[in-house]
Amino acid sequence: xxxVVQKFGGTSVGSPERIQAVARRVARARKRGxxxxxVVSAMGHTTDELTELAARVTGLERAGSEHPxxxxxxxxxGERIAAALLTMAIRQEGAEACSFTGSQxxxxxxxxxxxxxxxxxxxxxxxxxxxxxxxxxxxxxxxVSGEREITTLGRGGSDTxxxxxxxxxQADRCEIFTDVPGVFTADPRRVPGARVIREISxxxxxxxxxxxxxxxHARAVDIAARFGVDIRVLSSFSDDDTPSGxxxxxxxxxxxxxxxTGLASSAGQAKLVLRGLPAGMAxxxxxxxxxxxxxxxxxxxxxxxxxxxxxxxxxxxxxxxLERARAxxxxxxxxxxxxxxxxxxxxxxxxxxxxxxxxxxxxYARAYRTLHAAGxxxxxxxxxxxxxxxxxxxxxxxxxxxxxHDAFALEMAGEHTTVAER
Length: 422
Ligand code: ASP
Ligand code: MG
Hints:
By secondary structure, the protein is of the alpha/beta class. 34% of the residues lie in helices and 27% in strands. It is built from twelve helices and 18 strands. The strands form three sheets. The protein has an eight-stranded mixed β-sheet with strand order 3-6-2-1-9-11-12-10, with helices on both faces. The chain has a six-stranded antiparallel β-sheet with strand order 14-15-13-16-18-17. Helix 1 (16-31) crosses helix 4 and helix 2 (46-58) runs antiparallel to helix 4. The chain is globular and about 80 Å long. The two termini are 45 Å apart. Mean pLDDT is 93; it is low at 416-422. It binds aspartic acid and magnesium ion (MG). Residues 10, 41-42, 47 line the site of magnesium ion. The site of magnesium ion has 4 residues, from loops.
């Protein structure tokens, strides 16, 4: 019997009717003979609502920083409700099922409340339930620490629960059901020509998720890559039991021939430019150290020699860290005895992702040529081996995405056939 881990997100179990629809799908799969472990998120906006309740009774915007243990006790209830309701609905469909909290499933985490990491999955009771022919329903996004405290894995953590369970149980398949038909080449609300990507590598998906693609939790993709778990992302809103969706796998078939696989973007970025600093590593080292000590996470960094013993450093940070970054940068410039600080907010980082760009000349050139032709100014750039990130004015985000999607023939990433560079 193939062992399948299925995960259903909050929208997929957002109402009694949606829960019944999921129950029918699970019961059908069970009847076909699959052994099933089903991970659920909390219904709809439950997690947000519980967070809001905590804010109201404490008068604190972030009740979790003051009361992390109780926050975990509170939030795990959301997934527990969904798990119990789904189990009842599945049993009504005539399949045997039993629900488990993360703790009952022996998902062992570290001690870090509200952002725990999974250490090991023993899965004892889940295995027993499977042996007895039951569907095991597991409440997502939670576990238990070595100190027997209830913990959560951080927002969006149910994907991580599902992939970690698939790895631990050596499942044959891991299916993530969501409210969209798969991972798109770009956000379809911004780019009308966007298509569902048929196959994408773990590394590319990790870049996409980290660069702002919403569909999968980056940590889940990281675990999938490390343990070799293939993931299929599909819509729970289609009644078709064999929809294709997106396969996230080690080495997709079309990979070598496509330059790019997808575009992702992340708004709310800001840039700082420090000019006239004393030239040399000491300046940038001091600046980066001071930012790190101030808790500011830096995204892109570039340096340029200004001549006459002076240099400039450009860096980008998340928009909400801009004020702190500006203050820290100002202090550093003063300490170094020279330098001015300029800031610019309202930027969006667009990331072009594709294993096909490795070692291929001209990708930067094509991106710049495209944006120049579209009249979109680039305020910063950085690369990894399989991605290029460009900072553009927030109000030009859609234009930039559409132009790049077109220039790199990204609609082809949605096809099975391979294409050569245009
Ligand atoms: N319910 C949690 C959240 O909304 C976990 C999840 O949905 O994955 O963040
Ligand atoms: Mg949720």
